[in-house]
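Minimal example, chain plus adenosine monophosphate.
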Amino acid sequence: MKPLLEQLELNTKQDKVVYRHDLMPEEELTASLVWEYSDKLAAYLHETYKGDKSPIVVYGHKHPFMLVYFLACVKSGHAYCPVDVNTPIDRVEDIIATVKSPVVLVSEDISLDASTLTVPEAKEVIASTTERISKEHYVQGEDIFYIIFTSGSTGKPKGVSITYNNLNHFLDWYTGYYKEKGPQVFLGHPPFSFDLSVMSLWPALYMHAPLVQIDKEHLQDFKVLFKTLEVSKATVWISTPSFAEMCLVDPSFNQDLLPELEQFVFCGEKLFSTTVEKLMERFPRAEVVNTYGPTESTVMVTWMPLTRELLEKYPDNLPVGVIKPGTTVLIDGPESGEIIIYGNTVAKGYYENPEMNAKHFFEVDGERAYRTGDVGHFEGDLLFCEGRIDFQIKLHGHRIELEDIDNNLLKNPKIRQAATVPSMADGKVKSITSFVVYNEPIEKRFETVKLVKKELAQHVPEYMIPKKVVFLDEMPLNNNGKIDKKQLKELV
Ligand code: AMP
């Protein structure tokens, strides 16, 4: 199999549209345009930041230039680090400082302390140069290709560092599922700062299949969203189960809306058999695939096409699938236990974070291994997930460390103690509640809740703001003297 960058260059020979974003039809990109633009921008980055190979933060949402930026970074020997517009400035600045980004490539408005390059400026660079980057400067092998920051229990996000080798191993396996199929059109829904986006972005480009991006603006309004879906001609749907469940609320989400759709691929959280049943009814021509994996092992490591027999046999907990070649999963326990992944897609670690690396990464037989924090078991060669051993949750598809919220609440000097717990229904996290011990008397409860949330919003993305904030005089403690989260959950 050819490595990603070689394949992308080859694809320019039969030029096709590869990136569509219907809010910006005029910015549609073909394979050769992406290649040319990123070549020129990479030459500029190489010249300007000679000798500094630090990762580069790329800030924005789904603008087509995000793709040009990513490639310009890796062609000039820098890892790219996508940061979505849903990230508060405080956290963006923190990420920039952690990776020591020499410049921030931006496609949306933001005012930063760091130096930035905007889309109009990038276009000017591209228009005014004929210089192309030389291949010797590309990231290669064990160099980091991208860094995705995920919620960290200490209150600081952790930068998962995926190497070029990791990504190529992932592509080699994943694109194999499409070899026997006809031409595909991929639908991209998650932001680039969520690793699920990697499942559509690089495979689509690799296979020279158009990628239709759904902007977050579309998600606010079903009418607009469904119009985008209707004209997309998508054959492959990749999302969290939550996103499909949201669409299923509307009865017009069916095969008539997406007549070409052949496949749903899910990852990122538990897929419920009720969701699969509905999809099978509404989309009789599409297969439904469950996959599992953490960002720390390049998106996913299992694959499981679901059948009616499997739904009947495992109605409460569907298998997440068979493990990909090149990866091994160990269960740390007699039958069920923590899932440990080792092999060729395990990340290099968290970027410059020795403490967290020591906690989660180690070696097995000379290969990198990662402790997932997920509990699972095998039945034959089928892996099943049972839940978490820690305080990480998924809320509407977003990965959140509850302690990340607590630690950021505690940045507010008026808060003495904080503990956040999930509120569950039908086996799913429906919302989160933060319990807070406040240093001052509370006169206007509603106003104070608003203030607490506003202060928190300076440090964490919108989806991490608790639905409810409850004030307590003191935290309940368990026998070990720790905050009794079990009791707090009962209060919810
Ligand atoms: P992320 O790194 O955001 O992809 O989140 C990875 C975590 O999501 C895993 O460690 C699991 O806890 C959870 N997860 C991913 N896929 C599945 C799945 N198919 N079923 C249950 N949980 C999943």
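The chain has 16 helices and 26 strands. The chain has a mean pLDDT of 95.
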